Amino acid sequence: MIRVCFVCLGNICRSPTAEGIFRGLAEEASLTDEFVIDSAGTSGWHVNEGPDARATEVAAERGYELGGGSRKFVAADFARFDYVLAMDAENLADLRRLSRTGEERAKISLLRDHEAGAQGEDVPDPYYGGDDGFEEVLDICERACQGLLSVIREEHGLA
């Protein structure tokens, strides 16, 4: 099993969106059985809350399902996941501080590092903005998750 975790601040907008998209892409590619896909937040502000209704609505319009309750990413998660994808530089820094070994740090990357031409860029947080921000996040996550899936397929020899 290839274990992937998407991480943002509160685990109610960006990371559940990326999780839902990646799950959909894996299903489309008939690779669902190859993956454990999850998401988490660096803060515990929204623990057990579902995804933001705006994120859920925008995702549903494109055929993605967002589910699950928010949870906080903890140090033990590094042992549970092979890929830990941060949505922005702040999440990346938080994850690096939480990591204890070089092996754990090697699992962490920015999601957009897997999007052509967007290396080092953040997935913007749409929480305090309007619906357009959620559309933009969905667009970004689709491109980056497609790139991530391609990388994982190549690294693991998945057809």
Name its key features.
four-stranded parallel sheet, 159 residues, 6 helices, alpha/beta, Rossmann fold
Write the layout of secondary structure elements.
Layout (H helix, E strand, L loop, with lengths): L1 E7 L5 H15 L6 E7 L11 H9 L15 H4 L2 E4 L2 H10 L3 H5 L1 E3 L20 H26 L3
Helix pairs in contact: 1-6, 2-6
Residue fraction in strands? 5-15%
Radius of gyration: 14 Å
Count the domains: 1
Structural class: alpha/beta
> CATH-wise, what's the superfamily?
Response regulator
With strands numbered from the N-terminus, the spatial order across the biggest sheet is: 2-1-3-4
CATH class descriptor: Alpha Beta
Q: Please summarize the sheet with the most strands.
A: 4 strands, parallel
How far from one another are the termini?
15 Å
Structural overview:
The protein has 159 residues and is α/β, with parallel strands linked by helices. It has a single domain (2-156), classed as Response regulator (Rossmann fold, 3-Layer(aba) Sandwich), CATH 3.40.50. Helices cover 43% and strands 13% of the residues. It is built from six helices and four strands. The chain has helices spanning 14-28, 53-61, 77-80, 89-98, 102-106, 131-156, and strands spanning 2-8, 35-41, 83-86, 108-110. The protein has a four-stranded parallel beta sheet with strand order 2-1-3-4. Helix 1 (14-28) links the parallel strand 1 (2-8) and strand 2 (35-41). The chain is globular and about 40 Å long. The chain starts with a strand and ends with a helix.
